[in-house]
């Protein structure tokens, strides 16, 4: 339950740091600019953003103290994926988005959120599920995994939370 609140908090924080009218541009420098606050930082990540956390540690090793991952992807997670898999996924994302069915796919339990937090979650999910940013990230995930893998392993305290494997790829967490 705590992990879900951390994830929702990160999304809300990102949304508040950007204009709500235009497409969001996720930039680590902007997100981590706390007007004089400095690292080290503990990065929380879920799914594909695991690649971003690893990459941040690779590029800025003194800034990242630890990583907390929730069903976190690593380059190994995408080792069996092919370009055709990505194209099929992107097509499905576009179809579901066009049919306005994307936001029905999954939801956070309202048991761990206040009524206002759950309302905010539903609004964010409606706006962000399979938007152009998600589609572009899906298109680039194999390239991103390759870049992270080529730069090598990181030495960083990492706490990984893993789901029970249901509704996940068979090799999601290796």
Order of strands across the main sheet: 1-2-3
Strand content: 5-15%
Structure summary, number of beta strands: 3
Mean pLDDT: 77
- The secondary structure category is alpha/beta
Largest sheet: 3 strands, parallel
Distance between the termini: 23 Å
N-to-C order of helices and strands: HHEHEHHHE
- Radius of gyration over all CA atoms, rounded: 16 Å
**What level of helicity do the residues show?**
40-55%
| Tertiary shape | globular
Low-confidence stretches: none
**Tally of DSSP helical segments:** 6
Can you characterise this structure?
This protein is of the alpha/beta class and 174 residues long. It has helices at residues 2-16, 28-31, 49-59, 83-98, 115-128, 132-150, and strands at 41-47, 64-72, 158-161. Helices cover 45% and strands 11% of the residues. Strands 1-2-3 form a three-stranded parallel β-sheet, with helices on both faces. It starts with a helix and ends in a 13-residue tail after the last strand. The mean pLDDT is 77.
